[in-house]
Amino acid sequence: MPVTLKFKKSGHGAPFVILHGLYGASDNWISIGRKLEDRFTVFIPDLRNHGHSPHTTTHTYQDMVDDLRIFFIEHHIEKAIVLGHSMGGKVAMMFAAEYPELVKGLIVADIAPKSYNKIDTPYKTVMEHELILSLMEELNLVAVSSRKEIDTFLAEKLHNVTLRQFLIKNIHRNKDDYFEWKINVPVLKHALVLITTGVNSEWFDDRRPILGYRVTFIRGLKSDYISDNDLPAIKAIYPEAKIIGIADAGHWLHAEQPEKFIEAVLSVV
Q: What is the end-to-end Cα distance of the chain in Å, rounded?
């Protein structure tokens, strides 16, 4: 069943919809949204099981596409540029393929239309997600009294400070004043295989080539989510796609190099 998504909205002009990635939320994209709001009406929803949107028992790409379709109806969005990062990029690709009449342009940030569980892909990325969700599940939030304690617990196995800070943004205090994850950890952990394998090249077999809207892939050149080896497969699906690389940026390219990221976005809209 589709759910009603919480969201942030700003600006004026043609609709521009931003979809965050796994563990993300609309809050992570506010600064990027501000750079667009003088030209666009920017919508940044929290996807299901994230941010302030409802928690559900399932988390599939079809679920998220159905939610987004209802979101477009509820907000009278007839046609939009859709930008998606990571998991949100796969949602954006699937949504655009299912509803091309609603999409003026597709911008995919640092994710490829492939399965990330295959031997020839960065399987360590999948293992990192498994570790992250296991740590989140193991952490007894009722027993901790500060974000520093949470960081100390995560730091034993997650050595990337930036990643830990990003994950801790998903912590808030509930009505009983205990810490609580905003994301639905058990459901996301259960759905991880679907998240990492879905919207792959095979899914596009009966849809390629896609030519009905402008397509841009923006990749972090220090990220392994889109490698040079992925480019032929991307072009087979999207023959006219523009591919932009951002130097000195990893997977969270919009946070690591925000000025270069927004420059890339503005160059194609």
A: 33
